[in-house]
Amino acid sequence: MSLNLIERPRRNRKSETIRGWHRETWLSPQHFVLPLFLHGGTEDIAIGAMPGCFRLSPDGLDREVEGALEDGIGSIVLFPAIPEELKTSFGEESYNSERLIPATIRRLKARWPELVIVTDVALDPYSCDGHDGIVQDGRILNDETVEVLVKQAICQAESGADVIAPSDMMDGRIGALREGLDGAGFTEVSLLSYTVKYASAFYGPFREALDSAPKFGDKKTYQMDPANVREALREVALDESEGADIVMVKPAGPYLDVIRMVREATALPIAAYQVSGEYAMLKAACANGWLDEKKVALESLLSIRRAGADVIFTYYARQAAAWLKEQ
Ligand code: PBG
Fold first, then answer.
1. How far apart are CA 256 and CA 269, in angstroms?
2. 151 catalytic per annotation
3. Under 8 Å CB-to-CB from 66, ≥6 apart: which residues?
4. Which residue's CA is the closest to the ligand 1 atom numbered 6?
5. 87 is catalytic
6. Which atom belonging to ligand 1 lies closest to the Cα atom of 313?
7. Residue 114 maps to which CATH number?
8. What is the chain's pLDDT, residue by residue, as a tens digit (327 residues)?
9. Element (DSSP H or E) covering residue 58
10. Looking at the domain assignment, is residue 185 inside a domain?
């Protein structure tokens, strides 16, 4: 039997070459930023729910960076694990220029000047309360926190950070950071804002990796409600007006609709963060043999790009780069 069809979309899928003619989205290592956890110790400590990720020693970090550059990944984002005894209410350790993050940036830049170093701005790794801001009577203070974040960002810029990425979700921090950085002479340091960051349970493994979970309550008074999307557009408009260079949506996979909405709302480049829980889900299913890791990992990253993201923060960066080379 033969259907009388004028349109047969399958004709455009009949060979790899023809599929290649009109493929709309693609992945390349240039789209990836590799997140790396570091600590002051001499061992690399495996992170339970994130197979393949470690709290890296300085040597381990150097090996990762070297490998990433060989894989064609030119950028990393650093997250520090800070010993409990150095955590305080005001997070002073976050802008101590002699400590882990600033010293590491200087060391990496001396060895690999071309490496793009992205740094996280927020107080949670440094806060004895495990919150992204200063806590007073159970509330997270906004303006007082922003003052500390500016010090943290200037300290990172002085050490050689290329891109500062505030993940704290305080109001007005992009404007304050831009002003602070410019005032200190760092007009060329970029601001990649975690603009649309949801109060997500998918950050669980990350908080385990850094021992940075909130000691009380949750982050819902500053991170966004997963039920909302109009609010995302409001955050984008604010960050744009305050001078953000790149806006981020986080998490990525469960929020592809948000990435798409943001894509339509701004001309700025968009970053998306495939977070620790997304990585853990894929790793767990693949370790069980339930999914084909190479295929699902690349598909998940491609989907984030298709939704509208330019750059993807992903723990799969190195593996994905290697898989892409095989193809
Ligand atoms: C901290 C920060 C978090 C992540 C990146 N920066 C955790 C949080 O907000 O609680 C999560 C990343 C991940 O889960 O992979 N400001």
1. 16
2. no
3. none
4. 167
5. no
6. 15
7. 3.20.20.70
8. 899 999 999 999 999 999 999 999 999 999 999 999 999 999 999 999 999 999 999 999 999 999 999 999 999 999 999 999 999 999 999 999 999 999 999 999 999 999 999 999 999 999 999 999 999 999 999 999 999 999 999 999 999 999 999 999 999 999 999 999 999 999 999 999 999 999 999 999 999 888 889 999 999 999 999 999 999 999 999 999 999 999 999 999 999 999 999 999 999 999 999 999 999 999 999 999 999 999 999 999 999 999 999 999 999 999 999 999 997
9. helix 58-70
10. yes
Q: Which residue puts its alpha carbon closest to atom 5 of ligand 1?
A: 167
Pocket of ligand 1 (CB under 6 A): 120, 122, 124, 132, 167-168, 203, 206-207, 219, 275-276
Q: Which of 109, 151, 220, 250 is catalytic?
A: 250
Task: Look at the chain and report how many structural domains it folds into.
Answer: 1
Domain carrying residue 67: 27-249
Q: What's this model's pTM, rounded to 2 decimal places?
A: 0.97
Whether residue 249 contacts residue 256, with contact meaning beta carbons closer than 8 Å, is answered with no
Token pair for 189: 């340091």
Q: 326 CA distance to ligand 1 centroid (A)?
A: 31
In a domain, 192, yes or no: yes
- As a whole number of angstroms, the distance between CA 151 and CA 184 comes to 10
- Is the sign of the CA dihedral 248, 250, 256, 262 positive or negative? negative
Residue closest via CA to ligand 1's atom 2 equals 167
